Amino acid sequence: MKRQISFGQALATVVGSVIGAGVFFKIGTITAQTGSTSMTLFVWILAGIISIASGLTISEIAASLKINGAIKYLDYTYGRVWGFLFGWAQMIVYFPAQIGALSSIFGVQFVSLFGIKARYSNLIAILLVLFLLGINLIGTKFSSKMQSVITILKIIPIALIIIWGLFNPAKIPAPIIPLTVGTGPSFPTAISQGLLSALFAFEGWIVVTNLANEVKNPEKDLSRAIILGLSAITLIYVLINYTFMTVLPIDQLTNNNNAAFQASMKLFGQFGGKLVTVGILISVYGAVNAFMLTGMRTPYILAQDNLLPFSNKIGKANIHTGVPVVGAFIVDAIAIVMILLGNFTVLTDMLVFVMWTFNTMLSVAVIILRKREPELKRPFKVPWYPIIPIISVIGGIFIVVSTIINQFVLSIIGIGLTLLGLPIYYYMQKKNN
């Protein structure tokens, strides 16, 4: 591959891939889990630090191994079964849950904006999935161009809310010190649950590591793009959530999925609030499309290695559009089931738990490869080794363990769905042999 991606393009990839719906809609869940403005802002900052550390750590593998994607990194380090399980988890948990959760958010905001009865929100969510499925079946080129436009548009409502909020003369007090929790949760529970929720809004940063071999100056530009991109995103998230908390009192934010809509109405009035909410819907729409665009390729990749039943069907792309049609139907069908069975918080917590299990393994893989292959050429090395990888690993372990303790049923479901792939893997191995 040619090294043709500039620092600016790598930075735009980080920012465009991460900012989606979580920035607008996790405030209700996090305030319920923390009970205070100070702890709410703290978990956003902590989520940013852990994400930066993990991004830097995994970038070393991406730049060192001449293979594409996290599935292959796990194959290389731990064995093929782990790469398959990661792909399997992406196929049946991560991408469907992202699409399902984001579409559910879209449905809730859509019915609020247009005064439709709340019971129709799931129907709107499913119609969005089907509509975007049709758009993506037209062809990758068309959906990619649409995604570029939406990435620019999604910044507009964020900027408006932050700027108007900072200069709002009628601010509600939102103390950031001392660091406290509300009357309900304990301090460790507030941090662990709030962190799990905040990390949903940072999902997507790992995609930039797939560009490591195409960045012009990976030794400098890759790390700078991740550090500056995730730092900027963290700052944006802190400012917009601080704005929400200075516009609406915390008791009105708690468990409120319409916080962004209501805050916009207070800041900009009836017409301005609706206009900003339309911008928020565009941002959510773009996030759903982005995960659909990339998610349909996971079953296709697994089928290319003949690791799924009916791989001869799943591993084919349309000869005219290049779209893996069967893969798209698989991921979107699971997403629709999740919309009908789950809710926004459950879906996002499950996908964060499952993905951070594998993210932690990828961070540990850097340490393993440093020991196992010291002579491996590393165009990019994680700075301040081993401090940054240790932060990433400790953060990942904390997320996984605290989820098992605090949300045992959810974690068991996530683990169970992932392990469902094992009999399929060994069946296909036997069949292939």
What does this structure look like?
The chain is mainly alpha-helical and about 425 residues long. The chain has 20 helices and no strands. The model has no long low-confidence stretch (mean pLDDT about 85).
Q: Estimate the strand proportion.
A: under 5%
Helix-strand sequence? HHHHHHHHHHHHHHHHHHHH
Mean pLDDT: 84
Oligomeric grouping of the chains = single chain
Number of helices: 20
- Shape category: globular
Number of strands: 0
Which stretches of 5+ consecutive residues score pLDDT under 50? none
Tell me the span between the first and last alpha carbons.
33 Å
What would you call the structural class? mainly alpha
Determine the fraction of residues in helical runs and give it as a percent range. Answer: over 70%
Backbone CA Rg: 21 Å
Note the main sheet: none
Report a brief summary of the structure.
By secondary structure, the protein is mostly helical. The chain has helices at 7-18, 22-25, 27-34, 37-64, 70-78, 80-114, 121-138, 140-153, 155-166, 187-200, 218-247, 250-253, 259-295, 297-304, 311-314, 325-341, 344-372, 387-406, 408-419, 421-432.
Features:
20 helices; mainly alpha; 433 residues
Secondary structure: elements and pairs:
Layout: H1 7-18, H2 22-25, H3 27-34, H4 37-64, H5 70-78, H6 80-114, H7 121-138, H8 140-153, H9 155-166, H10 187-200, H11 218-247, H12 250-253, H13 259-295, H14 297-304, H15 311-314, H16 325-341, H17 344-372, H18 387-406, H19 408-419, H20 421-432
